[in-house]
Structure formats: C-alpha cells, structure tokens
Amino acid sequence: MANPLITMAAVNGLLAVMLGAFMSHSLERTITTELLTVFQTGVSYHMYHSLAALAAGILSHIFPKVRLLKFSAYSFLLGIIFFSGSLYLLALTELPMIGLITPIGGAFFIFGWIMLCIFGAKKHL
C-alpha cells in the first residue's frame, strides 16, 4: 500500500540535506554570515518538520481513518514551503518583504503540532 505522505516527507528530508550541502559548499563564500544563518535556520526547520511529517505519515498508515494525522503531515509540509522556503529566498535575494511570508509557515508548523497533540490525547483503537 503506497503512502504519499511518507514519500513527500522523504523527498523533503532529501531536499533538506541537499540544501544544507549547497549552503555549506556554495553559499558560504557568496553571502553574508547573517544571511547564511537565515538559510541555516530554514534548513534546520526543513529537516525537523520533514521528520515530523514522516512520523505523521507512518502513524496515518497505522491509523488510516484518523484524519488528524493527514492534516498534521500536510501542515508540516506547507510549513516547510512557507517558512523554510521564505528563509531560503530571503537569504538568496536579500529582499526583506519575503520575510512577511515566514510567519504563515510558522502557523502551519504550530497547527501541525496541535493536530499531533490532539491525536496523542485521544484513544484510538
């Protein structure tokens, strides 16, 4: 049985590793230390939430009728796009207006964790 949540989480984990390597080997010489820190924050949150999405995807495979888990995984993935993606763009373009998108991603991360908390608080058979 295929699980697209696990696949998406794995692809995002791969992207986080690749972007971290790009940062370490290419960006270090081309952007300021401050912008490198911004990019690193994006990579860190990208990886943390790829793993969280993976956990939610695995749990959704075990509990296929629990929609909270799918909402949680998709929230983490949207958080990666908006939070980490905006930090990557901010570091690469130095356009401060892009930073206005970052809190949207943070809200998706928070929502994803809330959904996992609710799942954990309920009894599932």
Task: Report on the architecture of this protein.
With 125 residues, this protein is an all-alpha fold. It has one domain (29-121). It contains 4 helices and no strands. It has helices at residues 4-25, 33-62, 67-93, 102-121. Helix 1 packs parallel to helix 3 (67-93), helix 2 runs antiparallel to helix 3 and helix 3 (67-93) runs antiparallel to helix 4. The longest helix is centred in the middle third of the chain and has 30 residues, at 33-62. The protein is elongated, with a radius of gyration of 16 Å. The mean pLDDT is 94.
Q: How far from one another are the termini?
A: 20 Å
Task: Profile the largest sheet.
Answer: none
Number of domains: 1
Task: Give the number of helices.
Answer: 4
- Stretches where pLDDT is under 50 for at least 5 consecutive residues are none
User: Structural class, from helix and strand content?
Assistant: mainly alpha
Order of helices and strands: HHHH
Features of this protein?
4 helices; 0% strand; 125 residues; single chain; mainly alpha
Structural topology:
Elements: H1 4-25, H2 33-62, H3 67-93, H4 102-121
Helix pairs in contact: 1-2, 1-3, 2-3, 3-4
Brief overview, please?
The protein has 125 residues and is an all-alpha fold.
